[in-house]
Amino acid sequence: MNASKEDVQDFQFIISEAMRIYDLLNGDNYKECLEKEYYRDFSSIGMVINPPIELKISHDDDDFRQIHLSYDSHDTFYEIAKRQIRCNKIEMLVTASEFVSVLKSELYKHIFLRNGELNQQGCTSILNKVFSSLKETMKKEDFYFPLLAFGLPNEVFSFKIAEIIPKRDMFECVGESLSSSILSKAKEFCDANEHPYDYFLKVSIPCGTKESRTRVAKKIAEFIVGVIHLFSEQYQIPPDFICLSTTRYPKYDGFWFSKIDGKDWDFKSSINFIAGNAPDFWMILNKSFDTELGSVLCEVTRLAAELKDYRIIADRLIDAIFIFSSALQDKDESSRVVKLVTALERLVSLKEEAGSNITSKHFRNRVVSLISIFHGERKRWEVISREMYSLRSEIVHGSWSLYRSVEPLYLKKYNELTSKTILSACMVFFALGLEKEDSEVVLKDFYIHLEKLASETQIPRNES
Fold this sequence. Notes:
The protein has 16 helices and nine strands. The chain is an alpha+beta fold. It has three domains: 5-137, no CATH class; 139-281, no CATH class; 308-464, no CATH class.
């Protein structure tokens, strides 16, 4: 690869700033100048490039040299990193902070060890060495996240897209590979809450640098929980029946005191019964992944872990599932409505239609077409989708009062609409092509044909 003209200019700017600050340090009024230079809260902390650790150069060595950074040159490193990551389409393989760390090291060695120039050839050499170093850090890694899950049997549970491992088996598997103190803290963490993390969710990341593997693994774990939420919603199981250790721990039980007419004390409690039909749900879920829908969800999960270097149709499903799961876990009902509509908008909205007077009409028609093609009851979904979209608009634009609202929001029907629409979209988008480029022209034409097909299709009430 060759460094661009912009890359060369950025590298030259970084070094020119280093020379300027070096002169400040050697000036008569360097303290006053540095106070003006580093005026932010953390002053000059982090505004220097020291010799790379592998060179083993200490402060006492004669050849200990530093590259000083200004705030602007510090930010320029990130501009180079973001540009290179974007141009080389490696967003899912490396983070900007990792790229910058290696970039600083290679720039230091290029200047002080190789006496390199900052022309196009020299800058190209720096970037090539950065990519070579990053490539060496890319590995496959399996992650095991502590998981709270009601109703699961005390055995390994596999359902194609994931594997859930009992805590006992997990610690036996780790064995003596880690110190006893680490294992003791891990067990203490799992048992610290009202309901323990009795399971571990396994997520495999095929390739990436250290930080990117962790980032992607957390996202995939949340995505898998989102897929489970799509199914659990169909059986009216509260979303808190499953919880990752990387997210907020649910509050299942609570209590409060009250005093009636200033004299009679009372104790009141709230108990969330969520485990009743969970065992049956897990068996149903396992069978669901043996269906065509299950196969489609497995493919969507694979694409979530191995994102393409361009936007594809599956990205809309992945985002919708993430947002839906986030909505279910949101304790604020008004916020949940906004997120549910946003999840559906991710499936049906097109940029070219944004802000138009017919946006709400497109939303309703497309959502209703997606859900009714598999679930029927077109008129019912039309009413619910119109009501939900209207409520979202009132919340967002400030005409709905959270404090004065006394009517419940009837979120169950909104949850049902959203979950069934997303599951229907999985099948419809699979037919369209999950890995097809996310073209608005193609999608607009697709929805025109879908609306026509849905209007001509009569499915009996409650058929799924």
